[in-house]
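WARN no homologs supplied; continuing
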Amino acid sequence: MKHEIKFTRLTQIDPAEILSHMSDPRVAEHMPLLTFDWDADAVAKFVETKEQHWRRDGLGHWAILVNGIYVGWGGFQKEGGDWDYGLVLRPDSFGHGIRITKQAIEFACADERLPYVTFLLPPSRQNLGALKRFGANFVGEIDYDGAKFLKFMLKTDGS
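OK structure emitted
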């Protein structure tokens, strides 16, 4: 079956879908910064914060659709001087992660604003083979907002 992946804005998604997604305890397992319960106000604040990144930087996190169905959110967000890639999928859509990331990396390679991208993964993530296959290199462990992450970098400018 062909899986059409489309990136769109989070404002195009029913807030109830985002609430259902982000309230699933399986999503929080690998999100050490997710330390609160989601409700309608949290969704509204989340979407507005992501929209602020788009206004400020001209790029940000997308809502991700597969065959027209919301499966999660992710994309590139400016973190200090780095463009960080993140992906948060619904548990029933975890299998789409590599295809979605491949399409996002193709986007990054075509966008001259992104000479490289970073990935911040919690130490709980055990399977890092896909990052290595994409060509990402381990940079080191960092502390971000009081949580430890593994930082990887992938050059996207062909150098």
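Residues 5-114 form a domain with the Aminopeptidase fold (CATH 3.40.630.30).
OK
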